[in-house]
Amino acid sequence: MEDDDLDDIISALLNSTRREILKLLTIDDSYALEMSRWLGVSQQAINKQLEMLERAKLISSAGLVPSSEGASRKIYRPSGFSTITIDYSRNFFEIKRMGLEYSEEERKTSVLSNGELLDDLAMVNRSIDDLMMKRTELLNRKDEILESLHERVSQLANSAIEKNILLNYLDSFSLEASASKLGIPVDFVKSVVSRFISKS
Q1: Domain ranges of the chain
Q2: pLDDT tens digit sequence for 53-101
Q3: What's the rounded Cα separation, in Å, for the pair 61 and 67?
């Protein structure tokens, strides 16, 4: 995804009111006045936050509904579903976004009883917790590996440009991405990385 899109999403999520709006909309579609009553915030403030969430593509309009109090009300619903991870360690900093597929079609959960759904939810939550623990272990190992590689780059790089190339390569793990970011030929990046590997 584009960096600008990710910046918009992160900026949108910084505000606690916007996060509360998203939580409400994951429960049910709603309109500004209703959300202002739920959250105890003025409708004007809610409208401002809704604009930012729309700009970040985290919500979208679901149409208009008539109102007995006057003009029709614009209904909002969540959109742009995704998982965003931020990893910040001594040796690396990464932000990644993975889109979550969502279908309006009837799901198989409709045939399950309430008890079965609760059991399934508990199992899924446990599985996610287990995956997070495993992910943390892998991130710690990644940090150890990168620390060792950073030390070797500092020792073995023949020049500042070589060091910069190698550090960029370790960050992206892509010859093409490193070359594009630094504005140099891919073959040159490849030769620097190859020399580094040969010095092992």
Answers
A1: 3-80, 157-198
A2: 999 999 999 998 887 777 789 999 999 888 999 999 999 999 998 888 7
A3: 16
For residues 25 and 12, give the distance between their C-alpha atoms in angstroms, rounded to a whole number.
15
The token duo for 121 is 């939810």
How far apart, in whole angstroms, are the C-alpha atoms of residue 130 and residue 116? 21
Q: Do residues 169 and 193 touch, judged by C-beta distance below 8 A?
A: yes
- CA pair distance 99, 102, nearest whole angstrom: 9
CATH architecture of 3-80: Orthogonal Bundle (1.10)
Average pLDDT over residues 34-58: 95
Please tell me the distance from the alpha carbon of residue 145 to that of residue 150, in angstroms, as a whole number.
Answer: 9
Mean pLDDT over 163-188 rounds to: 96
In the DSSP assignment, the letter for residue 30 is B
CA 91 to chain centre: 20
How far is residue 31 from each of residues 47, 78, 158, measured CA to CA in Å?
Answer: 9, 12, 61
**Cα distance between residue 35 and residue 167, in whole Å:** 47
